[in-house]
Hints:
It is built from nine helices and seven strands; from the N terminus they run βαβαβαβαβαβαααβα. The chain is α/β, with parallel strands linked by helices and 261 residues long. Strands 3-2-1-4-5-6-7 form a seven-stranded parallel beta sheet, sandwiched between helices. It is globular.
Amino acid sequence: MSKTIFITGAGTGLGKGTAIGLAKKGHHVIAAVEIMAQITSLREEAEAAGVTLEVIKLDIKNERDQQLIDEYDYDIFVANAAIGEGGPIAEIPVDRVRDIFETNVFSTLENAQIAANKFMKKEKGKIIFLSSVAGLVGMPYLAAYASSKHAIEAFAKAMKTELEEFNVQVATINPGPYNTGFNDRMFEEKWKWYNPKENLTPEKSMSNMEQLLDNQYDPEDMIAKMVEVIEADHHAFRTAYPQEIEDQMKDEEQKSWDARV
Length: 261
């Protein structure tokens, strides 16, 4: 059965691929992008893929734009939009962490609350939060981003229980590192403030972590998994993908219990 799906952050990366993938499956997709310039490019890519998307401009931090979430009618809301930044948490300027939280935590919650209230009144609907492997695994030099995704995990768990009496489903999708450019940009952001001659953290220490950029997965696999989960009537509360990432998340959680200081 065709569904109407509202997805934020659809201008790039996994969000864009998933919006197009869902449209290919016959769903009506409201694809929200951050800036006007992304509207034309996404429409063109959708046309090239042989599908039609309803593309709208929606900066998730903008209160006026947020009203669109209330104005549209849809069956599923996908909170996908996010930003990130790497760097040592002991030295990263806190204003940069605030910026991440403003987008990934506070604005995402505002968006989800609007969708939740619509669904509660209808007594049906589904909210999907795009979390991350970093939402459960604490990663050195990614703590600013990871902590925002830990908050998303807490929101999702609580909202799942709170909305069950309204017949509203809540779930998370936790991708591993995929080669969309997002992770590369996240690590590059630190150079806006980090200076190896002034900061105490050695550049070499961070470069070891950045080696994960050399082993990123093909995003098409994750897009297919996201399409599968989003359109499904029933699925797991948490979908971590690929399997080795799910296993890594479980192993790292156990290490936290076993660790000593």
